[in-house]
């Protein structure tokens, strides 16, 4: 997966992006902000260093739900796309936005499990954290 190229985009196709190589990690976030933004009980992400991420097409909108990160989305269709920590050197990309999300490894960890929907089980083999890791 070190030479892999992964492409993805939003629901309407206005935004497209590309990553290269293996992700730093894949994870599940159960925080209420991620749940609200995506409408999903267990949003999944793949994180890549910024130097292995490029925008191919389109512009994103941004929203700050916290004082330390920005959430980016397609302003046309509303697809949740990226999460970026202020001053960070990586981008967390919504796994479902990739053209082939099944090509990624299973989640390495799950965070904010204190907010996990009660009927969801833990992810086998993933480290679990009640808050941030």
From TrEMBL:
It holds the Pfam family GFA. The keyword Oxidoreductase does not apply. Residues 6-110 form the CENP-V/GFA domain. Keywords: Lyase, Metal-binding, Zinc. InterPro entries: CENP-V/GFA, Mss4-like_sf. Belongs to the Gfa family. This is GFA family protein. It comes from Skermanella cutis. The lineage of its organism: Bacteria, Pseudomonadati, Pseudomonadota, Alphaproteobacteria, Rhodospirillales.
